[in-house]
Amino acid sequence: METFLNKLVQLELGEESLAVGDWMTTQFISVDEKTTIEEALQLQQKLIIVVDEKRQFIGVMNDASLRDAYEQCIESSAPVKNIARRDGIQTVGEDMTLPQLLHTAEMIDLYVVQNEVGEVLGLLTKETVVKHIIRMLENDLHDERMSAILSVILEKAYEGIAVVDENGYLIEFNEAYSNFTGVPREEALGRHVTEVIENTNLHETVQKGMPERGVIQNIQGQDMIVHRIPIWHNGKVVAAIGMLIFEGVSQVYRIYESLQLQNVKMSQKQELHTEKEMASLEEIVGVSKEIFQLKRLARKAARTKVPVFLTGESGTGKKAFGEGIHQLSSRRDEVFIAFDCRSYEPERVKQMLFRRIQEADGGTLFLENIDVLPADTQYELLEFLEEGKGNVLVDQQIDVRLIVASSTTVDELLHSKQFDRRLFETLSIVHLDIPPLRNRQEDIPILLAHYMQQLCMKHRVPEKTFTSEVVQALMNYEWPGNVRELVNSIERVITLSDDEIIQVEDLDWLLTEKKEQLSTHVDSVSVNLEQFKEKQGENERELIISLLKKTGGNKSKTAELLGIHRTTLYKKLKKYNIDA
């Protein structure tokens, strides 16, 4: 029987796109091997990576580890290395490709990805592979190769996976989901998803076009974690994929209680989390090919000490990339200092710059707006980079990694003759150019969902969502301020709008273009939510009334013609005071 990965290889994705370093997740929690079991449990994580003082892999602490500890009566004060497990786990290099992992009959539970000196960089699981493939599907659903990949996922993935069409009817339902719900696949296909999966919102994902990742859904009395991902094609949501991931950490809590550790106070004095209050590459949201490639290059750059030159329009996320590179580098535990070269007058900028260089010794210095440095400061910075000292303000050897950023393009920078070409060549050994948001439209729905959830949580307001008309309008918007403008716009709309669903009119202050109008051919079943606005003076209320007349008052048929769920139609009938 062919394995999951063997089938992937047959799809001829190419060696470059199958590199382990590109598919791994860098979001994980690790602790030192000397950390006590008690301290590790306080982190309340389902999986914890145990490393030695050189950050090399020792093992993992998971449910099985805790069961062993309980059965063997291991004290909670014992070091976590005593229960770290390695069974079902394999360490691999980041430059390996998925085809090179095919020496096992089935995919190992967990691959731990290491760099050339053995430091843990990330994790690779079957779930990770599935999530990345779905991101590829988001880019092009109708590509034959992508459809073949989806078939592999449905056949082999251990997660529950369901796919609905634009009307919310199940078109795929894998064996894992079938086993969990008790509904045979052949009985599930063709039925509306609400009739098969309890408490699902997958049909609403199609209507709204907004992805939801890591949300909790109660199914058969259990809190499950699910992803819901819309598939856009030619400006329209044509399907949605739902993934049932795992039950959560409830079992860890039960074992924790069995060990009777819940009343023990924390005595740990060192920081255990690998994450700091700054961005990681995983937090840079996007599914586009451009973002995928930039993250790949950033990960490679992070392994070295060479300077990195980031270019891109204002608001594209240059600082986030700088922080992400620092987080993945060997300097992750040292300081990260940001210095904006525009913040000081020309006569003071040199003094402040070299003061920050000294403060960043051993760590990373991020220089924003490097293009405005005065000529004399450019010369002294170049001298410092070549010698490591020599400036009158820096009289000792300093080890600092520079990441610089400019909103000016390289051509403009060099043609202006105001920036030293030698300095540019020294700073741009690695050059990453971040594209504007308007050039990666496919990332916009993902960004909207991500920041809507984040900002609603920040402001402690009920989570809001957008209609698919709004998502489409925002995908067509130019976003001159890029991701920063998008975030600010979301923050404004959640502040000003009292409704949980954001309509196009709520964004009139942003969207100055005329709203897309409807076709008058309402007899066609292709009428859907994207065509739900005015055409030749006919508004939404009149359209609903017209369709109700044509269907003889049949609400189910009317909802089908509109491409919405019956429940949504009822809400609109009430909203427009339509007696039907």
UniProtKB/TrEMBL annotation:
Instruction: Say yes or no: keyword Transcription regulation present.
Output: yes
Annotated SMART domains:
AAA, PAS
- Which keywords does the record carry? ATP-binding, Nucleotide-binding, Transcription, Transcription regulation
Cite the InterPro entries for this sequence. Answer: AAA+_ATPase, AAA_lid_NorR, CBS_dom, CBS_dom_sf, Homeodomain-like_sf, HTH_Fis, P-loop_NTPase, PAS
Which parts of the sequence belong to the Sigma-54 factor interaction domain? 284-495
Q: Which GO terms describe its biological process?
A: regulation of DNA-templated transcription
> Which positions fall inside the PAS domain?
146-197
What is the name of this protein?
A: Sigma 54-interacting transcriptional regulator
The protein's organism comes out as Savagea serpentis
